Amino acid sequence: MEALDIMRNNSLQDKLWRWCNWYAYKYYQTGNLKKTLQFFEISLKIIRELNDLEAIAGMLGNFGNIYTKLGNFSKAINILQESIGIQKSIENFLGLARSYNHLAELYFKSGNLEHSLVLLYEVKNEYKYL
């Protein structure tokens, strides 16, 4: 009976984080980034409890995007680097490519064109198949 309770709980948690994520995107579409972050934070907390590494890495990418829009480049960079670490650990190469691209774009937006180009060059050489 305990296994069934765990499955039910995980199913509800899965629905809840997806529901919160949906609301976050709705707030994002209206430009309300504060509410977007609030719902993303709830989603991230739940998926961390579920230990869904792919979802965690994707959610961190969402946070990176929001902090980039808010102009908090250092926080966005740290979050994207965490996402990259997870993507590498689970060998999610599509997610890894997206995260590296986002990070390079972020360096570019922050005025660090050289670092952006160096990052893209290193990724190209390390992950020729991406």
Describe the structure.
The chain has a domain at 2-90: Serine Threonine Protein Phosphatase 5, Tetratricopeptide repeat (Alpha Horseshoe). Helix content is 86%, strand content 0%. The chain has six helices and no strands. Helix 2 packs antiparallel against helix 3 (53-69) and helix 5 packs antiparallel against helix 6 (113-126).
Please compute the radius of gyration using only Cα atoms: 16 Å
CATH secondary-structure class of the domain at 2-90 = Mainly Alpha
- Can you write the helix and strand succession as a string? HHHHHH
Shape: flat
Q: Provide the residue-averaged pLDDT.
A: 87
Main sheet properties: none
What is the distance, rounded to the nearest whole angstrom, between the alpha carbons of the first and last residues? 44 Å
Query: Could you list the spans in which at least 5 consecutive residues all have pLDDT below 50?
Result: 3-8
- Structural class of the secondary structure composition? mainly alpha
Do you know the CATH topology of the domain at 2-90?
Serine Threonine Protein Phosphatase 5, Tetratricopeptide repeat
The helicity comes to over 70%
CATH-defined architecture of the domain at 2-90 = Alpha Horseshoe
Strand content: under 5%
